[in-house]
Backbone:
């Protein structure tokens, strides 16, 4: 199962044209068939991986904004507690 996941993930991460992608799918299916796995196993894993990749793309829009404060004073500490900002002081 790990090998099939690796091959399918590699297929999606490489910049292949549609013909080569189809050829890669056929190779993965033939590997499954030659090792007595179901012919539908690679197709199922492919759907799962694509679903996971598509969900991760939509959730990456929530980016954190990092801020650096040079001065250390009670006002800045109050602002930090209000906005819950993580601070990395310059040393």
Residues:
């Amino acid at each position: 199962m790990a090998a099939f996941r690796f091959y399918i993930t590699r297929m999606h991460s490489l910049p292949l044209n549609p013909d080569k992608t189809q050829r890669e799918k056929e190779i993965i299916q033939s590997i499954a068939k030659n090792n007595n796995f179901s012919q539908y196993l690679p197709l199922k894993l492919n759907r799962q991986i694509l679903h996971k990749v598509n969900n991760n793309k939509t959730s990456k829009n929530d980016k954190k904004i990092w801020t650096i404060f040079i001065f250390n004073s009670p006002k800045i500490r109050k602002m930090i507690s209000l906005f819950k900002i993580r601070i990395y002081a310059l040393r």
